[in-house]
Structure formats: structure tokens, C-alpha cells
Design a protein that fits this description.
The protein is mostly helical and about 70 residues long. The protein has a domain at about 10-55. Helix content is about 55%, strand content about 0%. The chain has helices spanning about 10-30, 30-45. Helix 1 (about 10-30) runs antiparallel to helix 2. The radius of gyration is 13 Å and the shape is elongated. It starts with 8 loop residues before the first helix and ends in a 19-residue tail after the last helix. About 20% of the residues are buried. The mean pLDDT is about 90.
Length: about 70
């Protein structure tokens, strides 16, 4: 099974910025749920693949050959 990148450059940048804010906010407010959501965004931003995009057939990656 090949994990084709479906997250584009702008999407990745936004995800990583929001992820940083959520992780810091989660730590500051003692809300682990915010930190976990932030970590999920870090992973999807770093890998360029979002599992939630598959059922909706979303692809923000302009470099995709699909």
C-alpha cells in the first residue's frame, strides 16, 4: 500500500503552525487533548499525508500526478 502525499505545501505550513500553537496551548492550559491534536497535525504536516482526506477524495498537493 502506497501512501500518496495528499497534503500540499500551503496546507502543510498551516498545519505545522497551528500544531505548534495547539501543543503549546495544551501544555500551558494542562489540556492533553489539545496537545494530542497538535501532534496529529505535526505528523500529517511532516509526512504530507492525511488519512482523513481519503474518504472525501481531498488532495491539496498540486505536485501530485493523480
Amino acid at each position: 500500500m502506497s501512501l500518496t502525499k495528499n497534503v500540499g505545501k500551503t496546507d502543510r505550513t498551516i498545519r505545522l503552525a497551528v500544531a505548534g500553537l495547539l501543543v503549546l496551548l495544551g501544555i500551558w492550559l494542562h489540556q492533553p487533548v489539545l496537545s494530542v491534536i497538535g501532534l496529529v497535525l505535526v505528523v500529517t504536516g511532516a509526512t504530507g499525508f492525511c488519512l482523513a482526506y481519503i474518504p472525501f477524495k481531498i488532495n491539496t498537493n498540486k505536485d501530485s500526478n493523480d
